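From the methods appendix. Each design record in this collection lists the tokenized structure first, followed by the designed amino acid sequence. Records were kept in a plain field format so they could be parsed without special tools. The example shown here is representative of the layout used throughout.

RECORD:
FOLD TOKENS (430 positions):
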């Protein structure tokens, strides 16, 4: 592992926009996504802007030296720091993995209401924004969901800066500065091994990346799954064997519309419905997988009993399923889903009676109906992807994203673009 910090302008720009807005800034995401590193980079930005070292305080609640401290001890310690500042100076407080502190919500709420502090907190579990914290903070939070590196960030880290040579959305109009590296080779590595910031520093050493994925999984498993459930309101005890079984099945079924009953049936006598649901809740709360709801197109209502699940990182998903020769369409779907939520789209699946649209993505008053496929060279494949889009009668943009490296096509009102253009061009869908 390396201490090198990877610049993440997507998140840093948002944090700078939120700076001094009197809200608690909350960064959540899977362990290892880079939350702590982003805060360190932001702290450097503060210093570059003239904020003094003494105005910045960072506390990591996973450090052993704080294990005996309670909320009151932290409050008194932080208050002493603010008292030492000049009247025109403000404290910038960074609280890392704060879910490890009991009653942290009361601490942060008291700091927010009683002292002149700009507060930033991180956590690796969705329980960070539980009903208690929501009640205390109401609308006084600015939230950022942190993901592992995008494909664009992945390329930048390795020294490749794709650029468009004209306005057309074609792969052959992307170039990699001063290099003849095949972009598809880089993408295949990204697709297979993922993009956890600490792991990509291994410079394409496959064995080191796999070893790192195993370590990450062990950390998440111990700290954010079993631990998280023991600290939730449900107080369910997580059994490692059952938890591993549910995780492996989620990985194998990722990208498929799946009712919980399927998990129960596949796991046979190991679990009942409630147990499986609790385990799935724990897994999604730790941001290992994201649940995507399914909308019934005719009824215009969400189907409560069936969802798709997408992994937070393709490498971690491959590790869980032991690097299978898997369905590329599903892998591409997973990458597209992550990019959509990275760009702040609201995403669900839309189902018709005999078919489905992979993604209905909404943002800023616009709606995109999106199909994802490995290729469209086969006419049957193309018609299969077009069929559900033609069923949509509402106004919206229709798009097919294909894994073929160089595509610019249209079919009636349906645009067809390469997955590379989608991932590397923020304007590919607006």
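DESIGN:
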């Amino acid at each position: 592992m390396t201490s090198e910090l990877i610049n993440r302008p997507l998140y840093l720009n948002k944090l700078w926009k939120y700076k001094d807005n009197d809200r608690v800034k909350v960064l959540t995401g899977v362990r290892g996504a880079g939350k702590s590193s982003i805060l360190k980079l932001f702290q450097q930005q503060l210093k570059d802007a003239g904020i003094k070292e003494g105005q910045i305080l960072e506390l990591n609640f996973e450090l052993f030296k704080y294990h005996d401290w309670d909320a009151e001890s932290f409050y008194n310690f932080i208050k002493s720091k603010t008292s030492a500042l000049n009247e025109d100076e403000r404290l910038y407080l960074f609280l890392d993995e704060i879910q490890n502190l009991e009653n942290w919500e009361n601490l942060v709420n008291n700091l927010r209401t009683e002292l002149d502090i700009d507060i930033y907190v991180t956590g690796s579990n969705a329980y960070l924004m539980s009903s208690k914290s929501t009640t205390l903070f109401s609308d006084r939070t600015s939230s950022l969901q942190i993901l592992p590196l995008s494909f664009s960030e992945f390329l930048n880290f390795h020294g490749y800066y794709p650029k468009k040579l004209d306005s057309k959305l074609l792969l052959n109009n992307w170039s990699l500065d001063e290099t003849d590296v095949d972009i598809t080779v880089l993408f295949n590595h990204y697709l297979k091994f993922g993009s956890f910031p600490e792991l990509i520093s291994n410079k394409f050493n496959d064995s080191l990346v796999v070893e790192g994925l195993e370590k990450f999984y062990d950390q998440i498993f111990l700290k954010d799954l079993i631990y998280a459930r023991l600290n939730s309101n449900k107080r369910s005890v997580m059994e490692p064997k059952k938890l591993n079984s549910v995780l492996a099945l989620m990985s194998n079924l990722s990208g498929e519309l799946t009712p919980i009953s399927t998990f129960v049936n596949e796991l046979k006598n190991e679990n009942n419905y409630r147990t499986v649901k609790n385990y799935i809740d724990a897994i999604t709360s730790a941001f290992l997988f994201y649940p995507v709801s399914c909308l019934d197109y005719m009824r215009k209502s969400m189907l409560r009993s069936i969802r798709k699940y997408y992994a937070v990182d393709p490498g971690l998903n491959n590790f869980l399923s032991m690097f299978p020769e898997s369905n590329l369409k599903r892998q591409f779907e997973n990458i597209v889903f992550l990019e959509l939520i990275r760009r702040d789209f609201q995403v669900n699946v839309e189902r018709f009676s005999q078919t489905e649209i992979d993604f209905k993505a909404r943002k800023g008053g616009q709606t995109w109906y999106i199909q994802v496929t490995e290729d469209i060279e086969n006419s049957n494949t193309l018609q299969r992807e077009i069929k559900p889009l033609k069923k949509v009668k509402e106004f919206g943009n229709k798009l097919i994203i294909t894994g073929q490296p160089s595509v610019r096509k249209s079919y009636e009102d349906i645009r067809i673009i390469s997955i590379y253009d989608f991932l590397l061009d923020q304007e590919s869908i607006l």
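APPENDIX NOTE: The chain is about 40% helix and 20% strand.
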